[in-house]
Amino acid sequence: MSETGVPSIPPRTGEGDRQPQAGGGGVLSATEAAFKIAKRERRSGNLPEALVWRELRKRPAGLKFRRQHPFNNLVLDFACLERRVAIEIDGKAHDMGDRPLRDQRRDAFLQSQGFAVLRLPATSILKDLNAAIEGIVAFCLEQPPLHHRTLSGGPPPRFGEVFDREQP
Questions:
Q1: Do strands 116-121 and 85-90 pair parallel, antiparallel, or not at all (unpaired)?
Q2: Residue 140 is inside which H or E element, if any?
Q3: pLDDT tens per residue, the chain (168 residues)?
Q4: Biggest distance spanned by C-alpha atoms of the chain
Q5: Helices 47-56 and 129-142 meet at what angle, rounded to 10?
Q6: Sign of CA dihedral 71, 76, 131, 63
Q7: 94, 155, 160, 166 - which has most CB atoms within 10 Å?
């Protein structure tokens, strides 16, 4: 019973046995600041990103994409996690000041985390959206999938099961 006299409900199996981590956990975790930035960016009216998202959300070639995906302390414009691809749409600001150097460091970090990075100029998207989408899909399909399907299409055999042995 809780202090208020209401019986407490025990947690479901696996719940409550660990302290929650800020921003989640695992390989693809992100900081709280990255989550806030991603949420704000999803509401922005960036035309090239909106056009690309309109097409990528249709899952071309069966690929699933995420928009403004938080990763570590970064926010990726688009991500295909199944193929570990980060897609960045670069406007004019990416050519000014220290941005090219910052983008190089960001790309190096993402590559060290197993991501392939594809950068597209916003002008090329506005000129030919279909070519940009085809390029994104082709780039993603060139990358090996994160998880491979089994040859037979089903789950792997259980521990101890062997199907290719001859029966005595």
A1: parallel
A2: helix 129-142
A3: 556 665 555 555 554 444 444 444 555 677 777 666 666 666 676 889 889 999 999 999 999 999 988 888 888 999 999 999 999 998 776 555 677 888 899 999 999 999 999 999 999 999 999 999 999 999 999 998 876 665 666 666 666 555 555 544
A4: 75
A5: 60
A6: positive
A7: 94
Residues, the chain: 168
Return the residue matching tokens 């479901």.
12
pTM: 0.66
> Token pair of 49, please?
């990103």
**Which residues lie below 8 Å from residue 74, measured CB to CB, with a gap of 6+?**
30, 34, 106, 109, 110
Q: How far is CA 15 from CA 22, 27, 103, 161, in A?
A: 16, 20, 40, 32
The closest alpha carbon to 77, from 112, 109, 121, 33, belongs to: 121
What is the C-alpha separation between 25 and 8, in angstroms, rounded?
28
